[in-house]
Amino acid sequence: MRPKVRITICALAAVAAVAGLIPDGASAMDKKVVVGWVERVRIFPGNLVVTAKLDTGADNSSLHVADFQLFTRDGSQWVRFEAFDEAGRTVSLERPVVRMAKIKRHKEPGQNRPVVLLGICLGDYRADAEVNLVDRSRFSYLMLIGRSFLREGFLVDSASEYLTEPTCTKDGEKE
What we know:
Elements: H1 9-18, H2 28-31, E1 33-44, E2 48-54, E3 61-64, E4 68-73, E5 76-84, E6 90-96, E7 99-105, E8 108-122, E9 125-134, E10 143-145, H3 147-150, E11 154-161
Parallel strand pairs: 1-11, 2-10, 3-9
Antiparallel strand pairs: 1-2, 1-8, 3-10, 4-5, 5-6, 7-8, 8-9
């Protein structure tokens, strides 16, 4: 029977440095922030803090909304929805629709979802990201953060949770 081996992100960074894959004077850890596979994030507008699953297998991010209404404003498509945090605080939002995404689902028909821009704060990093709106009530986490956001400077440690707290304010500054 082969022993189980757990390679941490720090160990991978050390191997990369020894192999010469990282320039002298720098390390992989200097460039990327290590986060767990589950983290609290802050969403703007609304200033909601939700627990999110950080999923490197997903291209894009998703936010739980029980229902949404598409409408037209000044010739553009918009969406109206309610977002909420684990404490039950609800915020009603109206956002322009960036696009409609066709989402492939395993053993289920594809689904069209509205995609909006929302501010997301993970740790002290805040950026506007495309987020599709979907009913995630059957999942454990209200939000899923995908690679399109994570590639901006994060390494996900799949053995860890809650390594950081969102410290951004509405303007992207630290609290």
